[in-house]
Design goal:
18% strand; Purple Acid Phosphatase, chain A, domain 2; six-stranded mixed beta sheet; 2 domains; 14 strands; alpha/beta
Length: 410
């Protein structure tokens, strides 16, 4: 059902962009129909390719680099641009609808119809209409160029330019021995043809060079294919930290034929998975709990997995939770969790802007927790932008993120 919905949305945007750009090309180049036909052929090819990919999800893990560059990259740039254009056209259409409806009603009323006809015949109106059409046509060219240029930049440049961020979290009753304890957080690696072993090895080197006390990997090690776990495990087997490397399973880690094999390979590469389980981290006599849950799936399984992970948890020490999805901050607060570390949202991946704490991105429609620090009661949360991509391998205004969390005494 989800894939069907995505397919229908992609087709809707394709139809909308095809309609608007076809009209623009036909009006702009009435004697050069080859431009229109070239656009039609490209639209048909990329639309058929999108339907095939969304329906059959072909395995392209072994695709040579040169084939990716000349076929897959243009495919993603095209669909990235058409999605941006489709959103803009859809919004403009919704804004125009009330005015067009009022104008249509006015044309049915004899007095106003006659008045409108007279106005449209005046030289002033004709001059205004001509300048309006020129402005809209040039605006269309600009939007199209910006959309394709932005998609290319997001795929070829920003997707690979990571950002190092820091965040401090004050905790009540934190032992003096744990003052300044550091945790490097990475998430959403998505091992795939667009996150190769060489790139992952470089990320592993960068994470090790940060030299935090502990490293946590917050799920989505692979994208959807089982074989993607092997390059991940090879690349991240080098991770090391004085107080351990821990992780949890994300939703994409269950989107393959054998999630248990993914878990085993990740565990064996040196990332200790907390699968609805806990560990006690000790430093200099100070302690805190580290809980971890598998991707929760349905919301009703959240309390079950949280309670299973926590168990009795008798010690009155700080509690940190690794939970791939950030949606369940309230449930964590009910269990007196001090800090939740999450990912899943990719920070929006394609971000239009930020208004205060609100990230303006399509991902905001699914979650109010998109990127950064949040709080509910006494429970604090950090949502990582992650380092990989899903769907379109494009990032805009949302570079990959590696975060160092520092614990302080409240």
């Amino acid at each position: 059902m989800f894939r069907l919905g995505i397919t229908l949305v992609v087709l809707l945007f394709q139809i909308l962009v095809y309609w608007r750009l076809s009209l623009c090309l036909r009006d702009s180049f009435p004697k050069r129909r080859q431009f229109l036909w070239a656009f039609r052929i490209l639209s048909a090819l990329f639309t058929v390719a999108a339907i095939y990919v969304l329906t059959f999800r072909p395995d392209v893990s072994g695709t040579p680099v040169w084939i990716r560059f000349f076929t897959m990259y243009p495919f993603f740039i095209w669909h990235g641009a058409t999605i941006f254009l489709g959103i803009i056209f859809l919004v403009s259409l919704l804004i125009r609808l009330p005015f067009q409806a009022a104008f249509s009603v006015a044309r049915w009323i004899p007095p106003t119809k006659q008045k409108l006809v007279e106005i449209q015949k005046t030289p002033t109106f004709k001059e205004f209409d001509a300048s309006r059409r020129t402005f809209l046509r040039r605006g269309m060219y600009g939007l199209t160029a910006a959309s394709f240029g932005g998609s290319a930049y997001g795929l070829l440049v920003e997707k690979s330019n990571h950002e190092f961020t820091t965040a401090q979290f004050p905790i009540l009753d934190l032992s003096p021995a744990l003052e300044g304890f550091t945790i490097t957080l990475i998430s959403d690696i998505h091992s795939s043809p667009f996150m190769l072993k060489e790139e992952m090895k470089e990320y592993a080197r960068i994470v090790n060079d940060i030299s935090s006390d502990m490293i946590v990997v917050d799920g989505d090690f692979v994208n959807s294919n089982l074989d993607e776990v092997y390059p991940f495990a090879e690349a991240f087997s080098d991770l090391t930290a004085p107080y351990g490397v821990y992780g949890v399973m994300g939703n994409h880690d269950f989107y393959n034929a054998n999630p248990e094999l993914v878990a085993r390979e990740v565990d064996e590469c040196g990332i200790k998975l907390l699968r609805n389980d806990k560990a006690i981290i000790e430093k200099g006599g100070g302690q805190f709990y580290l809980f971890g849950v598998d991707d929760v799936g349905r919301a009703r399984s959240v309390p079950v997995k949280l309670d299973e992970a926590m168990g009795v948890a008798p010690l009155n020490i700080p509690k940190i939770l690794l939970c791939h999805r950030p949606y369940y901050l309230e449930q964590a607060a009910e269990r007196n969790i001090d800090i939740v570390l999450s990912g899943h949202t990719h920070g929006g991946q394609v971000v239009l802007g930020r208004l205060g704490d609100v990230v303006v991105a399509p991902a905001s429609l699914a979650s109010r927790y998109v990127w950064g620090k949040y709080r509910f009661g006494k429970t604090q949360m950090y949502v990582s932008r992650g380092i990989g991509t899903v769907g379109l391998p494009i990032r805009l205004n949302c570079p990959p993120e590696i975060t160092q969390i520092t614990l302080t005494r409240a």
